[in-house]
Amino acid sequence: MMAACAPRDGVIVEIGSFKGKSAVMLGKLAEHYGIGPIVAIDPHNFNNAELEEHRSSPGATSYDEFLSNIETAGVSPYVEVHRQLSTEVAKSWDRAIRLLWIDGDHSYRGAKADFDGFMPHLVPNGFVALHDALHEFSGPIRVFVEDILRSGRFGASGFVNSIAWSQYRPQDSFSFRALHETLETVAGRLLPFVAGDEPLHGLRKIRFKLARARVPRALPPLKDWTRMLTAP
Questions:
Q1: In CATH terms, is domain 2-230 a member of 3.40.50.150?
Q2: Which of 42-51, 95-104, 167-176 has the lowest mean pLDDT?
Q3: Which residues have CB under 8 Å from 223's CB, separation 6+?
Q4: pLDDT per residue over 185-231, tens digit each?
Q5: Domain ranges across the chain
Q6: How far apart, in whole angstroms, are the C-alpha atoms of residue 154 and residue 189?
Q7: Residue 41: which of 89, 3, 5, 75 has the closest Cα?
């Protein structure tokens, strides 16, 4: 929905592709609506702690499977592949971005670097979204709370399942201050639990789940959602 509703100017940047599930979905949208390209950035070296369990051997890579999957899906012409660390790509990046999809290194250092490296290129009314913001990782949720909700630069925001998303609205972000304060109140309670990026156990994990359950994360009705995006 964000890919389809974002301004036409700019590209879609995906940080963290793994085997290509989201690249295929975004590529299908690019094919249907003519909104490409999808810039897929991933070193494909299992450098994300979340992916460690998928590593079969030293030097394992997801690159060949990624290429095969986007080829099989017929979206290769719409996906621009960068087999690099996102921080390296960001150093020379100079293109406008309509949707920034962050699903790479989930540590705070990693997610913060991705946000800081590409966010200056996001066009007004474009979107940023972070995957696994409601899982046991510090990066996505801290960036959402500290760099988005508290920044005074964003508008419509929320959660859908584990995805945190926000529309870049520097021109009238003040209109969404109440929404941001409400989201910060509930989402901010998760920060102490994930600060150390350590697995949660026992009572601490139960408390984390209870706090997470208070975060609204249902997809709003499409009519209400689009009204939020176009509100003056």
A1: yes
A2: 42-51
A3: none
A4: 999 999 999 998 889 999 999 999 999 999 999 888 888 888 888 87
A5: 2-230
A6: 21
A7: 89
